[in-house]
């Protein structure tokens, strides 16, 4: 290795990018050597090269290149060798080093099956404590992209709710959400919630995904499909027979200035179902829905479709009470 680590880091990173398509093993070795050099020059500013020279490094360029190196190594380790744990470790190191947070903070914030809103609050606390200021939009975008890639990778090669890597992926999604909100990027923040809900669904953990709607209600009702997401979570909770979650979602929505006629109706529906009011289910449930659904179908067809299909399923035992009989029913 070159005796000047600033020169070596420059050369090694360029070599890694040049040979990436040809020799996987060589790339891994070069990436690790480049990271070793970058860590040395990060720790000792005297080794960063003379200002103005081709091999000069600033603190910012070191952080950016270390992030790129670690992400490249994380991808390589999983794609070439399927080493899940080591790949996850590199993703974690990449995010922690770039944001300036301690790895132990990550480990403490995402215990298995911790309530989603608790993890979200932990993520917000971590983001609030980040020492780096991120004065340039380029650096913010790089952090957003890195968090998104790390979260997606960890969720993609996880196996379910008993897998600690899945919950680290959840934390990274919520770190992305909190970080993007902190930097005023509402689109990226909403995308993080979408990404998390899809991750839960792919892992067979949709019951956790319904909790994402609480974050949508709190932060993202401006989005054009937010109401459909909340309605879907309410119906999903009812189909799971989780009346407590359905009630919490509807209370949160109805206590805000985003309350809708359909959300008030669904709150009544949940209350009647909780009370096991079969008479109301037989006589009034569908009729009341019909009263408000005609306008909803015009104003928000996505919400209408979600609720209408859900109620059609939930109320199927009572259909004979509200559905007119026809000759076809007797054929």
Shape field: elongated
Low-confidence stretches: 322-331
Note the run of SSEs as H and E: HHHHHHHHHHHHHHHHHH
* SS content category: mainly alpha
Q: Distance between the terminal alpha carbons, to the nearest Å?
A: 85 Å
Proportion in helices: over 70%
Largest sheet: none
Number of helices: 18
Specify Rg, calculated over alpha carbons. 26 Å
Strand content: under 5%
| Average residue pLDDT | 86
**Number of DSSP E strands:** 0
Commentary on this structure:
The chain is an all-alpha fold. It has helices spanning 5-19, 24-43, 59-81, 84-99, 103-108, 116-128, 137-156, 164-182, 186-202, 206-209, 212-219, 226-239, 243-254, 261-274, 278-283, 285-299, 301-314, 319-322. The chain is built from 18 helices and no strands. The longest helix has 23 residues, at 59-81. It starts with a helix and ends in a 9-residue tail after the last helix.
